[in-house]
Design a protein that fits this description.
By secondary structure, this protein is an alpha/beta fold. It has eight helices and nine strands. A five-stranded parallel beta sheet has the order 2-7-1-8-9, sandwiched between helices. A four-stranded mixed beta sheet has the order 4-3-6-5. A hairpin with a 2-residue loop joins β5 and β6. It starts with 12 loop residues before the first strand and ends with a helix.
């Protein structure tokens, strides 16, 4: 088990989580468009949505193939949601970090904590929605899921937001430009090790109150 960064360089393992529908994908696309990083593509057993491409949005696998990879210890983390599996393949992350590239994982909270146990050097960043009510609006606007699935996502979102206090940094995705700037500040501070991003730490009372406000504004 790897407890520290075993690569012979200063490559960072960045884990970013947010409730589904929060808009983190847009943030990440903006922040990483000019950065030479490895953006991990997760595996899933769910069917592709319209416009999604295998190997780009996800690696779409059968249940049998996914379970085989679990048995062979090929995942950094994996979990189930809505009768489907999701997981982060281990090999491409380790290979790219060995080449000196920062690796970015976009995964949910359970998986993030699995990664943190395996890699203590992993940096966990949580992206908050402005409120549960706004998250509800965004999920409905997306129009890709039925009411039952949306209700389940909102219920899970509350639990995920409550767990954000155990992340290293927490930012809010309200105004896109502000969220992009804040995420860039955190990433640059992590690379520099200068503590400039400490104001985004959930040990900060302002961040704790922000998290509480998001949960209360349902």
């Amino acid at each position: 088990m790897m407890k520290n960064n075993d690569t012979a360089n200063d490559a960072k393992l960045i884990v970013i989580s947010a409730p589904s529908g929060c808009g983190k994908g847009t943030n990440l696309a903006r922040v990483f468009e000019d950065r030479d990083v490895f953006y991990s593509v997760s595996c899933t057993t769910r069917a592709p949505r319209e416009g999604e491409k295998d190997g780009v949005n996800y690696h779409f696998l059968t249940n049998e193939r996914f379970e085989e990879m679990v048995k062979n210890d090929e995942f950094l983390e994996y979990a189930g949601f809505s009768d489907n599996y999701y997981g982060t393949p281990k090999k491409p992350v380790e290979e790219n970090m060995a080449l000196g590239k920062d690796a970015v994982l976009e995964i949910e909270t359970k998986g993030a904590f699995q990664v943190k146990k395996l890699r203590e050097d992993a940096v966990l960043i949580f992206v908050l929605p402005p409120s549960i009510a706004e998250l509800d609006r965004r999920l409905h606007k997306r129009g890709t899921e039925d009411e039952e699935t949306i209700a389940k996502r909102l219920s899970n979102a509350r639990g995920e937001i409550e767990k954000s206090v155990d992340y290293d940094f927490v930012i809010m995705n309200d105004e896109l430009e502000d969220a992009v700037r804040d995420l860039e500040t955190v990433l640059e501070s992590v690379r520099a090790g200068d503590g400039a991003a400490n104001r985004f730490s959930p040990v900060n009372e302002d961040i704790k109150n922000t998290i509480k406000g998001v949960l209360e504004n349902a």
